[in-house]
Amino acid sequence: MPKVRPKNAFYAQSGGVTAVINATACGVIETARKHQNKIGKVYAGHNGIIGALSEDLIDTSRERPRAIAALRHTPSGAFGSCRYKLKSLEENRREYERLIEVFAAHNIGYFFYNGGGDSADTCLKVSQLAETMGYPIQAIHAPKTVDNDLPITDNCPGFGSVAKYIAVSTREASFDVASMAKTSTKVFILEVMGRHAGWIAAAGGLASSADTEIPILILFPEVRFDRQKFMNKVDQLVTKHGYVSVVVSEGLKGPDDRFLSDQGLQDAFGHAQLGGVAPVVAGMVKQDLDLKYHWAVADYLQRAARHIASRTDVDQAYAIGREAVRMALKGENAVMPAIQRVSNKPYKWKIVKAPLHKIANVEKMMPKTFITRDGFGITDKCREYLTPLIKGEDYPPYRNGLPQYIRLKNKLVTKKLKEQFIV
To answer: What is the CATH number for 297?
Structure first.
């Protein structure tokens, strides 16, 4: 009898990339290579799930082990990402038929999707192909989101490094402002990511500690913005310390429940396109208190800063990729490897299995117990949660003063289908 070829795997990156999403890719590919008797090749989608629909598949087997290993310390999405959410089977059956055609043409039986909440939904839909359309596919979701808003998992790969960047940047900028406050800037405002959940903003609170106290105000999306209350706090802290640093989430809402920075635009997922709340708040400070200010938007810098990534985050991102493959080899489907915190002191964690139907399209907000009563700071309980996630350094190699990141060959496999699919 002819030898049965092992099924190939499809891996794709989705949504906003992070400093450590490639570490997860590294975990997937390196682990799969150790089991070539069960998993053939790993094909990566060029630009996420779009690569599957358009049959633009990258053959990762053409990359040397050294190049794949370098993914662990390289930021962004090495294979290209996308913001594209599959509609339901009823709304667009052709998309699913196309996936099956591509998977069947390239002998793909494993699907690893590396992304956030919307990606979990896509992965769940793909996992149901066997039942709804008769094609066997094992779909495993690998969590990734700087917003840290996926349920069940203690935290999300990508968040720890963003949190570290924001904590460090807030501390450094605050030192700068403090030194100039007598005759110059009194208020520094840093805008960070976070549409509905204030996890990243909360990380700014870590900049102030018992041995390095800094006046910091945090504006969470979970707490409706009260302009007068905020101005009173700013005035109090500037009077006492001479300056104040403000960390504001892009998703800050006013009493009317509207985003302060909502310009009426939408992204590819249908979400409000945010950004620009820092100058809005700064303008209010100028108008109400007539204080000199500076503002900054962390934007892509916070999620691309691999040079200052958290060692905890890197280790967890790699482990997520490794365990995703191991779960697939055990026959699992429609699941996600999740991080479970075992203890805080010492900090210990492990990977557990979580069902996708409890994760897709569900957001995890900041607990009320993590936010101080006045709504402008983090509690000790929050600090205890956040601190282990930013610990440890994992610097990339440097050459001539610059970090050395890998750019893969990303060789596409030959297309086997005649029909082209336009996304």
So the answer is: 3.40.50.460
Q: Respond yes or no: is residue 147 known to be catalytic.
A: yes
Look at residue 88 and tell me if it is in a domain: yes
For residue 423, pLDDT beyond 80: no
SS3 of 99, please?
helix
Domain region containing 72: 8-145+309-362+394-403
pLDDT of residue 131: 84
In terms of domains, do 301 and 351 share one?
Answer: no
Q: Which of 121, 147, 313, 394 is catalytic?
A: 147
Q: Which tens digit of pLDDT belongs to each residue from 251-287?
A: 999 999 999 977 544 544 455 555 589 999 999 999 9
- Chain-centroid distance, C-alpha 191: 17
User: What type of residue sits at position 368?
Assistant: K
Asked if residue 266 is part of any domain, the answer here is yes
List CB contacts of 116: < 8 A, sequence separation 6 or more: 14, 15, 16, 143, 144, 145, 147, 149, 150, 156
> Token digits for 287?
């108008």
Q: How many angstroms separate the CA atoms of 334 and 325, rounded?
A: 13
Q: How far is the C-alpha of 146 from the C-alpha of 150, rounded, in Å? A: 10
Q: Does residue 187 have a pLDDT over 70?
A: yes
Note the pLDDT of residue 265: 44
Q: What is the pLDDT of residues 145-156, one digit of tens each?
A: 999 999 999 999
414 occurs within a structural domain: no
Residue 350 φ/ψ, nearest 5 degrees: -150, 165
Query: What does pLDDT average to over the chain?
Result: 94
Q: How many residues does the chain have?
A: 423
Cis previous bond, 75, omega within 30: no
Instruction: Show the beta-strand stretches assigned E in 145-192.
Output: 187-192
Assess whether 50 and 20 both reside in one domain. yes
Whole-angstrom CA distances from 173 to 92, 166, 168, 180, 209 are 49, 10, 9, 11, 15
- Residue 298 falls within a domain, yes or no? yes
* Statement to judge: residues 279 and 230 lie in one domain: yes
Question: Are 270 and 330 contained in the same domain?
Answer: no
Examine the domain organization and report whether 130 and 213 are in the same domain.
Answer: no
**420 pLDDT exceeds 90?**
no
User: Do residue 109 and residue 170 come from a single domain?
Assistant: no
Strand partners, 115: 143
